[in-house]
Amino acid sequence: MSRAGLKVFCALGLVALLAACAGSGGRPMPAPVEDRMSRGQGAAPSTMAAPRAMPDKPLPGAENAGKPGYYTVKPGDTLIRVGLDHGQNWRDIARWSGLDNPNVIEVGQVLRVTPPGASVAAEGVVVRPVTQTQIAQPTPMAPPPTASVRPAPAVASAPPAPAATQATPAAPAEASAEESLAFIWPAQGSLIASFDEAKNKGFDIAGKAGDPILAAADGRVVYAGSGLRGYGNLIILKHNNIFLTAYAHNQTLLVKEDQTVKRGQKIAEMGNTDADQVKLHFEIRRQGKPVDPAKFLPAR
After folding, report:
1. How far apart are alpha carbons 166 and 157 in whole angstroms?
2. Looking at CB atoms within 10 Å, which of 5, 192, 236, 278 has the fewest?
3. Do residues 111 and 93 make contact, with C-beta atoms less than 8 angstroms apart?
């Protein structure tokens, strides 16, 4: 090969080498960047899409959050638990809250836990006494200018007194009737655990499998099943607008929801479902709050 040909060959080789270097230096860089971006963008929608979508779709009942008679669902809640904690039938809560599927409630959802008519009735009771006092007050004010000062106050002051005495006892009389509910012991075994507001929300009564469990007072079955964790086979009785009782860990349930029962009626048989031994866990709840059964049960 001549010297001129050799130069041409070397020049062509150098051009090819530069082109190869340019290609190899330009292509590897974008690929990792694209991979990282695609992985990063692929993860974000799966974790961020739901939270971002939530504000656009308010949870059911959100407009009632914080209002009296309403409850905002928390993690771990079930409709049965909400009913027990508010002294209501879970089916009623589902109906009052307009739930299409009672088995599905969401954290942050707002449920109605008082009857729709309850708040209206309560407001009516409050408004009526106020209206009466407002009407009664102008009457004593009118007589002074007429110079018959002595007769007028005597006549005007008489009506307000009966009105006040009639309005005040009405509500307490109703409440006292419900408060005076007479309970009996639901089982005959020995007491193995007493009430502790932090650790034990009722009484634990020992016994043998199959021992009778009795209704502590007249009432209606608002729950019978095993859907509340930690209670096993459970029966909840509602006695009035104030009290309900719960009977847990049963071996056999002998009543159904919405059934009316009498005090002393056998409603279940003792067992150890969801418990470490055969026993009855018994609770008395006042407006949904656990109270010490010792304050309501007769002394043994």
Report:
1. 15
2. 5
3. yes
158-178 tens-digit pLDDT: 455 545 444 444 445 555 777
Of residues 201, 190, 211, 195, the one with CA closest to residue 300? 190
DSSP assignment letter at 196: B
d(CA 288, CA 277): 27
Q: Are 235 and 255 in contact (CB under 8 A)?
A: yes
Q: Report the C-alpha gap between 76 and 133 in whole angstroms.
A: 48
Which amino acid, one-letter code, is at 291? V
What does the alpha-carbon distance between residue 123 and residue 33 come to, in Å, rounded to a whole number? 66
- Give the CATH superfamily of 62-112: LysM domain (3.10.350.10)
pLDDT in tens, 44-95: 222 222 333 455 577 888 899 989 999 999 999 999 999 999 999 999 999 9
| Residue 195: other Cβ atoms inside 10 A | 19
> Does residue 70 sit in helix, strand or coil?
strand
* Global pTM exceeds 0.85: no
Distance, CA of 42 to CA of 37 (rounded, Å):
8
Q: Which residues pair with 89 in a beta bridge?
A: none
The domain defined by 191-295 folds into Glucose Permease (Domain IIA) (2.70.70)
Q: Is there a contact between 222 and 236 (Cβ–Cβ < 8 Å)? A: yes
